[in-house]
Amino acid sequence: MALPIHQGGSFSSSTHRSDHDVFLSFRGEDTRNGFTGYLYSALCDNGFKTFIDDNLQRGEQISEELLKAIKSSRISIIIFSQNYAFSSWCLDELVEILNCKQNGQLVLPIFYKVNPSEVRKQEGNFEAALAEQENKFKNNIEKVQRWRAALNEAASLSGWHYENGNPEHKFIEHIMGHMYTKLSGKQLFVAKYPVGVNSRAMAIESLLDIKVNDVRMVGILGLGGIGKTTIAKAVYNGIAEHFEGSCFLESVREQSGTNDGIIKLQKKLLSSISRGKHLEVESVAHGTNMIRERLQSKRVLLILDDVDKSNQIENLFGNFDCFVSRSRVLITTRDAHVLSTLGKDCTIYEVKELDKQEALELFTRYAFQGNKLEEDYFELANQVLQYAKGLPLALTIIGSDLYGKTTSEWKSAI
Question: What's the distance, CA 120 to chain centroid?
Answer without folding.
Answer: 26
